[in-house]
Amino acid sequence: MKRHIINIAIIGSLVFSVSCKKVLQTTPTSFLAPANYFQTQTQIDTYLASVYDVLNNDVFWYRDQFRTQISEGTDESYSTNTAALAAHYSAAPTETSVNNLWKAIYQGVERANTLLENIDKASGLTDAYKRHTIGECKFLRAYYLFTATQHFGDVPLKITSTKSPADGQIAFTPSKAVYDYVIQEMTDAEAMLIDQKASNLSYTERVTYTTVEAMLARVCLFAAGNPVNDTKRYADALAWAKKVVASGEHRLNPDYRQIFINESADLYDNTYHEVMWEVGFYFNASLPALREITNPLIGVNNNSINPYGKVAANTRSTAILYRAYTSTYNPTAQTDASPDIRRDWCVAPYTLTGGTTTTNPTEVPIAWNSWWMRYPGKWRRQYETARPIDPNNSPQNSPLMRYSDVLLMLAEAENEVNGPTSVAYDAINQVRRRGYGTGSRVSSVTITNAGTGYTTVPTITIGASLTFNNTLFTVTNGATATALISGGKITSINITSPNAFYTTVPTVTITGGNGTGATATAVLQTIDQTAADLTPGLTRDDFRLAIQNERLKELNGEFLRRQDLKRWGILLSTVKSRGDLASSGGTNRFPNGVQMIPPLSSSSSNVNDLALAIADGQNITDRFIYLPIPSSEITTNAKSKQNPGF
Amino acid sequence: MKRSFTKHAEQFSQRMSFAVQRCRGILLIIGLVAAFCTTATAQQRQITGTVVDKKGEPMPGVSVLVKGTQTGAPTDLNGKFTIRVPQDKAVLVFSFIGYLTKEVAVGTDNNLKITLNENEGTALNEVVIIGYGQQAKKDVTGSVGQASVTDMQKAVVRSFEESLAGRVAGVQVSSGDGQPGDALNIVIRGNNSVTGNNSPLYVIDGFPIENPDNNILNPNEIETLTVLKDASSTAIYGARGANGVILITTKKGKMGDAVINYNGYYGISSVTKRQQLMNPYQFVQLQNEINPTVTAATYFTNGKTLDSYKDNPGIDWQDQVLRKGPFSNHNLSISGGSGGTRYFISGSYTNQQGVVIASDYKRGQGRISLDQQVNKKLKVGVTTNYTNSISNGTVPRNQTSSIGGNDINFNLLYAAWSYRPVAGSSDPGSLLDDLLDPDLITGDQRINPIYSALNEYNKRINNVFIGNAYAEYSFTKNLTYRVTAAANLAKGRNEVFNNTQTRAGSPLTIQGQANGINGSFLNTETNDYITENVLTYNKAFNKNNVLTATGIYSIQYDKSKANGYSAIHVPDDTRGLDALAYGTITNPVYTTSDYGLQSFAARLNYSWMEKYLFTASIRADGSSKFDPNGPNQYGYFPSGAIAWRLGQEKFIKKYDFISNAKLRASYGVTGNNRIGPYDYQSQITFYNGSNAYYVFNNAIVPAYTITTLGNRDLKWESTGQFDAGLDLGFFKDRIQLELDYYDKRTYDLLLNTPIPTSTGYANITANVGKTQNRGFELTLNTINLTGKGLNWSSSFNISFNKNKILALNGQTDNLLTAVGGQGNALNNIVGYIAKVGKPISQMYGLVYDGNYQLSDFTRLPNGTYLLKDNVPSYSGSNGVATRALQQPGDPKYKDINGDGLVNDNDLTVIGDPNPIHTGGFNNNFTYKNFDLNIFLQWSYGNDIYNANRVNLEGSTPIGLTVNQLATYVNRWTPTNPSNSYYRVNANGTRVTTSRVVEDGSFMRLKTVQLGYTLPSKILQKAGFKTLRAYAAAQNIATLTGYSGPDPEVSVKGYGLTQGYDFSAYPRAFTVTLGLNLSL
Q1: Where are the beta strands (DSSP E) in B609-673?
Q2: Cα gap B202→B122, rounded to integer Å
Q3: Chain segment B349-371, per-residue pLDDT in tens
């Protein structure tokens, strides 16, 4: 009996003892450990996707916070969101958007570090695949570090992966040294990607060698500019920009608007390749989990759920941007038409109202002389093709580098190195001419029958030069005009936007206004692109001003302006000036005595907008050359140092 | 050391067979029972006798045993027994639950009269359950608290946790709110861990369980509940002992005839304190102030004016979502024992209808316990318990919908409070029937809370099976070996379904439009196995030298699984979850994980001269949660204690009134390993959701990345605890006093610590930081009145604990936490701080300094107000970015650093949720056949962050149609320069502010039970053993200055964000009538 019991006990204990080794060495089943990953090309691909993924990651980067908080608050736009403290130059180190930007940047750096350190473990990769992957990875890491030093100055140059908590105690590297590292890494990447060309890819989310060259030009301009002032880099910027031009891979899209329609419609421009690199967003209603989408916050405000998709607009364009474009101010005709088609694309001339789940909202024209309360128009959700439209999320892509930027960088660098030469003029004029479009524009409308009985202003519709079709509806893009009436008759029809690309005379339709019988015909005028050219013979300083102005007109809304102003050393003065203009208006006047830039007029509905537009100018100080180093870093990294003034 | 009951059984005369399910190990043990049972006999001389209680009432069912043999007999209905004893000097042992065991030497008298005393009061010989054994109370060296289970059972509650609060000094029991079925938070001697789990280790019938669902136990079936507090008593649980240990034993069968017991009650729960909201008149007045144009068009049509709303009672939405809920419980057991067999079989059913409509908790539970004395040396036994519990209904403190959360309108009670009491132009009656308020402004999509509560299907099901089998073999009378094998198999299931009548699924809302009808389910399964081997050597070398040595070897293995999915755009509204698969499936979950623990332990108890007691123990724990290739897989936990029974010394003995005096001191190190099973390894995951892809060529490529950074250096969190105690008894222990002082230092904290985000990660689990808990506990048990008439005994305890962080990660001296789930406006606003030198959780925000008054401004010619230059303006997170926006009536905050700006630099500690002391006061009265129990519980000195007031006293902005608290009637206007309530649509309200920090001290009359036991003479005729009827009430009255509905609240848990009140499930006041009956 006793023996039985003891035997059972011994056996029982033995069974468990044998298994105890196993009990203490468990293997994770629901995730992979780094030791078991990086074996195959698929695994490398998926990890590389995560290096790119930072670009559209959650709320951090090219989603809402960076767009509407970090990069705003300049002469091109102002934020109407009181909580966007970074945009209002009020951000403290604890500011969430600043912390999130930093975190996203270094997530990208870390993912790149991890992949670069582990790629050798994979088997069966072709040499070219491996070289491209390393090249993209090195470029992305450098791009992230560039963004870090751009916004934060001295930053950790973290180029090995984190293996223990102690690796977080890392000293900050001076900004210039970060630029040197970034330029070296990108130069290496350019060589590794030399056979990865835009012309070989049918899409734009992946880095190509010309993207690297263009980004090098940008990085060099920043290294050369304020506050690093490593001026020898102007020559490097020039050389890189010239390489892009010489590659022949990219051309300007003749129609400025098409660039952004493509972004909305998820189309790639495989003819011109003007967009060289962009952030990818994606939406598919049937696979809701599989989507990379952004919150639409920049655009024309649209409150109700309708086929245009909602936009909770937090940003308004400034009168400064509006007035930067050439135009014909005509108080009699109540028009201010611009031959530059960029203006009425970048600054939407309408607001949206109404609409139901099945009907489009109405585009209500904004008063011709109201310039502060307009919304940015570059990103128009009505061109999205993903259906059904997600009211609160947009799959619009976002460009990170465009060829027109390369041309403007070339002109700028040439001016800095050699002065305003013909090379510089040629580059800037290409961009300016494209802004005017080709073919003909509607120069005027001749009334053929003034009609009778018009008690209110009728609507004038001029046939389209561009028709964009998608499955649900057709959007036309014609010249626009307004009518004046007197005594029941139409007394004049005045062009508010002449458009371009007309090859045949469009029809003019007159509707509404309670009257009948009015008819009119459009008059076309061949566009003279040389009219767009920059005044010849400018001094170097004036040419620099022209570049600054041209970048405003061409690249506004693409999250570049604040950093551009900084490298030119005019961020403070520009933002202060914008505040003053919003409160008092400018000194320049039209012949009739009206201020060219009037103050932002105050009403009960926009009292906050006015206050915020003014506040930025009052808030900004020298310290806002950089963002504060986030508190998440300061409180955990003993070797970190805060930027001056925070 | 008291002898184990191995030798106390008699003949095996009867075999019982039970249908035992599932566990093969248990069947094996039952096989053993059947196979090895033998017969033993012994008889010489017959003794008879009667056992009575101190009132002289006969006691049936008392176990009578001949000491040192297995001969025994129970007393009959008249308390009489007959037993055969050896001729030589025999000793009889009388024992009965709740009474002191008595040993009587049999003289020549063949007819004995024995009086048993209840085990209140003089209790030195009382047996105390300790880890891996038991001890006489006089021999205990550590700090061990015993809850009076009989008193706890007076409370009409669902689980034992609910009645534990205030019972044992040093044990803090708190519930987040009144949600039926929710687990409570139990902390022993303060939080050690900053971000980790601070709940104690539970050992249920010897089975250590880290996170049990305590609902699985029927409170009626608990026999003892012991709390191990100091390190010398918990160190035997090594790596899991640092948070204290709660030892629970369940009832076993007693020798004697079968006893059938029924205990049942039925009662009603209701809510006694509600929010005071604006009435229709006040509400319309507020609307008019926010927007006169809209208000005129909505409320002042058809000739109506503001005064028209004066007599309008409006809709009381609290009436609509709250109700009186029945609460019933039935418990039936049969137990007994004869021969070598003891059995206990019971079943219970609990049905608690919540006080919020469509919420309830139901539990069915059954237990079988069987013990068999096989022969003189071998004893085997098995206990099985199966519980099925179901909670239904929406959880008001959570934004329960997984779809479109982070919106306080999903918090049910907030929705009810903020729903407008009266409609204007729309038919006043229809508000009750409308799914969506017709006058809601754009963007406000509050669903009618009645619809929410009735239609948001949220079901939580738990099935737990515990099988626990043991065999105990006595090699010699000194050496015993016990082997246990047990399994805890828990299966849970959460089901959520949102039909078209819910906010998440309605075609009228943004979430509903985006996702359609939706639902989800999640199955979880945790299988926990343990085997333990305990060898006990117990020898009294002589009267003065008694030694007990214990050796333990144990292996535990735990495997968990979770799987389920969500689906959106479910086409069918009528079939609930059955239609889920026809929707678009999202967020599929399939995870598994496991961990193992291997342990060796030894303990030595030595008693010298019955005056000096020594305990030493050590345990080594190896865990799979730590790197098997590193040096930290095994942790070692030593402890030692000494006690001096100075009451035995002559210089004390001469004072008659001192009946007991003992000094205790102990020190030991224990551990905490409550981290994820694989935290030492980095994890690469392809996580679900919308963020784990990148888009190339309009096609998505999954993005795999390291989502959690591993830390190979991870090891145990260790706690060193010093404890000094004094036990005193006076007047034959009619007054018993226990005092304890302790100082706990926890180091190598397992902290989910922030690391520089330049590493690419936000945090890592690492061993950093130190905390301290120091405290003082006092327990006073007294018998105030005793005699034939009124008897009164009471038990009082009070605990003081001071919690302090000694160090954090070394780089920073504080850890800031934002309270999530407050809606977008407040979600990222810091609300709590953990700061070195201060408690783990403190409220952190701006100090409210009244409102900006007209005198702070210069009036400009255009009629607007501009803040004077010397007055600071608010510009913090979510603030007004410019001084121009600061207006009279806005809240003003203290500019602590004096820089003229109120921002994040002016944040400071604004409240402390930690009580200065907590305690309980229990009273038992008996008079003739009446018994009365009154239990009071309190908490003093803790603050509560009343977030309800943030959103209901001028939330920013107050949307039209959003009702507010009645207090907001006194808001700031130019003519009412209030400094307590700011103006409508004020700037700078999206902050954490001292304005809503309130003193949360309370004293609560927690339990009252009045019972009447029918006289036994009457009962015997009717064939009953006992019959007692009682009325009981729970949460009867509360004394507090807190303005919210209930001061016992912490809806964001008891970690870093304690004492936060928002949309809490109301705590129920319950009144019941019940019956105890035994046959």
Answers
A1: 612-623, 634-644, 658-672
A2: 28
A3: 999 999 999 999 999 999 999 99
